[in-house]
Design brief:
about 150 residues; mainly alpha; three-stranded antiparallel beta sheet; 3 strands; elongated
């Protein structure tokens, strides 16, 4: 499999080389100047377009800039993935904290009697389950974050 950078230079040079055989016509169509690869009106004027093939130094510079562009693009994509995963961890923590706060509010309503004590115990058990559920989710999200951070951009 070829890298994008390895393909960019030959494709660029092939496009430039192909331009030598291509004709360009200038026409007046409805009062507007139109350029086309074939005569577009009876008054079509074939243009004599001359181009210069890049020398080895220019081709090397094109390759260097192409490589740099894709390296920068890969770094930006990597940074974006890291930021998105950090956001995912923070979101899970916020969800956990909101659920626990709601359960704490419920627990505060328990009366100081036998029924209240049973309800309070039930809420405590539910809080423990919520903590464990989110611990697993957050741990998995943090492992994924670590995997993304250590991956080469």
């Amino acid at each position: 499999m070829f890298s994008r950078a390895a393909i960019a230079l030959p494709v660029s040079l092939a496009l430039l080389a192909g331009a030598a055989d291509a004709a360009v016509y200038k026409c007046d169509v409805g009062g507007k100047t139109v350029f086309s690869d074939r005569p577009c009106a009876t008054d079509a004027q074939k243009l004599d377009i001359r181009y210069r093939q890049p020398d080895a130094a220019a081709a090397a510079e094109i390759q260097r800039r192409t490589d740099q562009y894709y390296a920068d693009l890969d770094k930006r994509k990597h940074a974006s993935k890291v930021a998105a995963q950090k956001q995912r961890v923070r979101q899970l923590e916020r969800e956990r904290d909101a659920e626990l706060a709601a359960l704490r509010d419920k627990k505060a309503l328990a009366n100081n009697n036998l029924a209240g004590a049973a309800w309070e115990q039930s809420i405590s058990t539910e809080m423990s389950a919520v903590v464990e559920q989110y611990r697993q989710k957050i741990d998995a999200a943090q492992r994924e974050l670590q995997r993304i951070e250590t991956a080469q951009p």
